[in-house]
């Protein structure tokens, strides 16, 4: 959301006051106090960029902060480099460390969730052991008392205050920029369902690495400034559990999925803790702060900032519906546009001898199939015959055990799912897999943002998303979260997401399953409308009346082999097909 002129003016005025503070003769004690607030704001904000947005909770933030601290301590304290140069160097070292770790860890699917948290925590301990047992520290710590600190800010605490302020502002600006960008949209989707995000075109590995590197670079820079602040760097203090614990708590309190949330949490906790420490009853005070934290987190599980924003939005006057729908682009195909593909239409998708085995199970035993531009091909077969496996192989979810798959004569097998999505293949899921923390509109907008590159229409992702929501009859649900929808609506959001990706080929996996007869009719009409717009469709379906109503051709799978392919009525009357479906007695 763009900042209004008024809020920009308020921010500028606030910043001007903060910048002027060291020159007003204010006591160094207050500057140091405020520096600590900035320090925690920068650290917590940096943590949020990976862990808050993408949900990869890192308990190893101390490692990157520590890498920055020791880079500064070594370069300035031992090699006598000007201190200011050590700050970008510390950021670079921390980012390089995160990238190296991420390149290994992010490729391993099993290292998500709590395993990632534990692994990052152990990185801190490994790094601590390495540093304390080498000349970097040697166990004695590194003094920076002889390091010449910058002269600006009227005093050394003033200079450190200004550095802390600059870093906190930069961290907030970067975090806000990330959240509003493609990267941020991708990270939020990764948070909710990483596999689906990848299939929708989000380059998940690259985005996680980028977020990890940015987050760690800020932590590294914070470490460098903190080295100057403390003047004596030790492994015990640097790599303690305090840093990760505090940044996690601060982010949860303020709201980890909002750019300003961790900063608000950091400011509140830092101020609360310093108030109780100065009160003379430090231990009792800390317990009180912890109790208050528990209460606030229980009451506001999304964090203070999102809760406040929600309240403000509720209080704001409702936006005019026509205005909210934005400028519509005419994407809705005409009702009577041509239907079936011309018989001689070119081949869009070709599967040649596609094989897939899961351990000892042969799910696909060499399936060869062509899909022509503009046609609707139904994929049918008994349970376990390999239909979903074929869809998963085309969309890149599974690697092939053998054979080739081409889209417009270009091999796509072996490409990452996001690359396949960007080439124009979109899919839906049998059980809708929506991003539950993103609104219906945001779900669809994400797919418009990351969809087929070649079919970019020039319309904004937001306009496209609203257009496809209107097409699927969901315009009124745009601002709801997916858990508030019924199954029918959730399935239609799946449609809208797939369509917003501007697919050349749409893969529908049992979209009618679980719908009432009326909802089935609506879905069938919708699929007909989609094809009328020129989209080629492959759909997996058990409901024969829908297959007959929709399909130009039917492909029948049985035990991983293609049994028959042809027009629906003829194919379903083929004795071999009847035997597979109804048993030998019906096939005579
Ligand atoms: N991830 C997996 N790991 C192991 N086996 C799998 C996996 N996915 C599918 N299979 C096996 O592959 C075979 C084909 O399954 P698939 O889900 O493709 O069938 P289907 O035709 O889509 O069935 P349904 O109509 O019930 O959805 C089955 O034997 C199934 O157990």
TrEMBL record:
Pfam families: ABC_tran, BPD_transp_2. One of its GO terms (cellular component) is plasma membrane. Keywords: ATP-binding, Cell membrane, Membrane, Nucleotide-binding, Transmembrane, Transmembrane helix, Transport. GO terms for molecular function: ATP binding; ATP hydrolysis activity; branched-chain amino acid transmembrane transporter activity. InterPro entries: AAA+_ATPase, ABC_AA/LPS_Transport, ABC_transp_permease, ABC_transporter-like_ATP-bd, LivM-like, P-loop_NTPase. The chain crosses the membrane at residues 32-50, 57-77, 83-106, 115-136, 156-174, 209-232, 263-282, 288-309. This is ATP-binding cassette domain-containing protein. It comes from Duganella radicis.
């Amino acid at each position: 959301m763009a900042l209004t002129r008024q809020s920009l003016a308020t921010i500028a005025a606030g910043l001007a006051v903060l910048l002027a503070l060291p020159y007003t003769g204010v006591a160094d004690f207050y500057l140091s106090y405020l520096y600590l607030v900035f320090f925690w704001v920068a650290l917590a904000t940096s943590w949020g960029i990976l862990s808050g947005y993408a949900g990869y909770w890192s308990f190893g933030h101390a490692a990157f902060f520590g890498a920055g601290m020791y880079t500064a301590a070594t370069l300035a304290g031992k090699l006598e480099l000007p201190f200011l140069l050590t700050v970008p160097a510390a950021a670079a070292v921390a980012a390089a460390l995160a990238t190296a770790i991420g390149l290994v860890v992010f490729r391993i699917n099993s290292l998500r969730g709590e395993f990632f948290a534990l692994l990052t925590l152990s990185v801190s301990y490994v790094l601590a052991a390495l540093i304390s047992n080498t000349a970097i520290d040697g166990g004695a710590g590194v003094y920076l008392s002889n390091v010449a600190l910058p002269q600006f800010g009227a005093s050394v605490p003033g200079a450190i205050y200004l550095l802390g302020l600059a870093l906190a502002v930069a961290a907030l600006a970067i975090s806000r920029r990330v959240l509003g960008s493609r990267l941020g949209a991708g990270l939020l989707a990764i948070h909710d369902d990483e596999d689906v995000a990848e299939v929708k075109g989000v380059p998940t590995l690259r985005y996680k690495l980028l977020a990890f590197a940015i987050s760690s670079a800020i932590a590294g820079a914070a470490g460098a400034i903190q080295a100057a602040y403390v003047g004596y760097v030790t492994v015990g203090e640097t790599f303690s559990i305090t840093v990760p614990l505090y940044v996690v708590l601060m982010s949860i309190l303020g709201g980890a999925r909002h750019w300003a949330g961790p900063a608000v949490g950091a400011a509140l906790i830092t101020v609360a803790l310093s108030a109780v420490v100065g009160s003379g009853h430090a231990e009792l005070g800390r317990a009180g702060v912890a109790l208050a934290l528990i209460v606030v987190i229980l009451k506001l599980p999304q964090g203070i900032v999102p809760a406040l924003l929600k309240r403000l939005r509720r209080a704001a006057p409702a936006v005019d519906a026509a205005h909210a729908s934005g400028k519509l682009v005419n994407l809705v195909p005409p009702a009577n546009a041509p239907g079936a593909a011309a018989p001689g239409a070119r081949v869009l998708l070709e599967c040649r001898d596609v094989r897939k085995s899961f351990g000892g199970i042969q799910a696909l035993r060499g399936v060869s199939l062509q899909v022509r531009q503009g046609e609707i091909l139904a994929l049918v077969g008994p349970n376990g015959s390999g239909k979903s496996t074929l869809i998963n192989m085309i969309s890149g979810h599974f690697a092939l055990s053998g054979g080739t798959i081409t889209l417009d004569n270009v091999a796509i097998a072996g490409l990452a799912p996001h690359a396949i999505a960007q080439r124009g293949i979109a899919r839906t899921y049998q059980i809708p897999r929506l991003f539950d923390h993103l609104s219906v509109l945001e779900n669809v907008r994400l797919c418009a943002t990351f969809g087929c590159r070649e079919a970019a229409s020039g319309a904004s992702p937001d306009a496209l998303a609203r257009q496809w929501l209107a097409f699927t009859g969901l315009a009124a649900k745009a601002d709801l979260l997916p858990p508030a929808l019924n199954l029918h609506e959730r399935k239609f959001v799946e449609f809208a997401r797939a369509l917003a990706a501007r697919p050349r080929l749409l893969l529908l996996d049992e979209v009618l399953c679980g719908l009432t007869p009326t909802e089935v009719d609506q879905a069938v009409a919708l699929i007909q409308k989609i094809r009328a717009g020129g989209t080629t469709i492959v759909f997996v379906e058990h409901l024969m009346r829908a297959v007959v109503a929709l399909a130009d051709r039917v492909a029948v799978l049985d035990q991983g082999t293609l049994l028959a392919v042809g027009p629906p009525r003829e194919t379903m009357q083929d004795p071999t097909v009847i035997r597979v479906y109804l048993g030998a007695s019906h096939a005579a």
